[in-house]
Amino acid sequence: MPSMKDSSEDEESSTIRSAIIPVLVAVTVVAAVLQCLRRRPWWITASETQHLLEEDGSEQLGTAAAPPNDSSSRTERRVTIGAQYNDEFLFVAAYEPPAHGDIALPSQKKLFLNPECVPWLVHLATNSDLYLIVYVEDDEAETMVRKALEEADLYECGLNPFKVVFCETIPGRISAVRQIEPQLHVDSDRDVISDLSRFIPAVAHVNQSMSSSSCEPSGNTLRIRSLAELF
């Protein structure tokens, strides 16, 4: 049976980890914004995407030449990203330390943007017409997702809050993407990618546990382990 000391140490360790996550998110947001100001915008047209995916598997989407950043072309370069709020691709869950006060409150579960995704989401929000299609189970999960996006300053970096779409079924997610008609769709669900590959010029399946040997493109489908591999 664990001692009270061990229990106290575990609780303290959990509190420290929970406190570190928002700090990492804030740091990566600042770094990403500075990087976006220095770098040329990432652009890729439907034809460029198709051309790259038909070439040798060593080619990466990010090698496409960047056309001028003008408002008339921005709306043509549409990117959608699909994820579940609890799949640890875009969002990670942690327990927020209880507020200090006279009354001891239990820790509350909270969502944060995955720190590894933040720089690339900022880059896409700044330089493309970005939509997020998020699967949630209820209104509480939707609220948590919106708060995570707000706290990561994605709205200030160019993500339109009206382009964050929520759905409660996989068919709903597929339908939303088809209606938006992006040039590129990124998703963590293999079935979604399989279905959309018939209709979208380029799709990318994100699987964090995938081995490097499994990342070869197939047709118009890329297999990647993180958003960073798109650039």
Key features?
231 residues, alpha/beta, Rossmann fold, six-stranded parallel β-sheet, 39% helix, transmembrane helix
Description of the molecule:
With 231 residues, this protein is an alpha/beta fold. It has a single domain (4-230), classed as Rossmann fold, CATH 3.40.50. Helices cover 39% and strands 19% of the residues. The chain has 7 helices and 8 strands. The strands form 2 sheets. It has a 6-stranded parallel β-sheet with strand order 5-4-1-6-7-8, sandwiched between helices. Strand 4 (129-135), helix 5 and strand 5 (164-167) form a beta-alpha-beta unit. Helix 1 (4-38) runs parallel beside helix 4. Mean pLDDT is 73; it is low at 32-75. It holds the Pfam family HAD_Pex22. The chain crosses the membrane at residues 20-37.
What's the multimeric state? single chain
Structural class: alpha/beta
Mean pLDDT: 73
Provide the gyration radius in Å: 19 Å
| Structural domains: how many | 1
Question: What is the first-to-last residue Cα distance?
Answer: 50 Å
Count of individual helical segments: 7
The largest sheet is: 6 strands, parallel
Q: If you consult CATH, what is the topology? A: Rossmann fold
- Biggest β-sheet: strands ordered side by side in the sheet: 5-4-1-6-7-8
The portion of residues forming beta strands comes to 15-25%
- What's the helix-strand series? HHHEEEHEHEHEHEE
Low-confidence stretches: 32-75
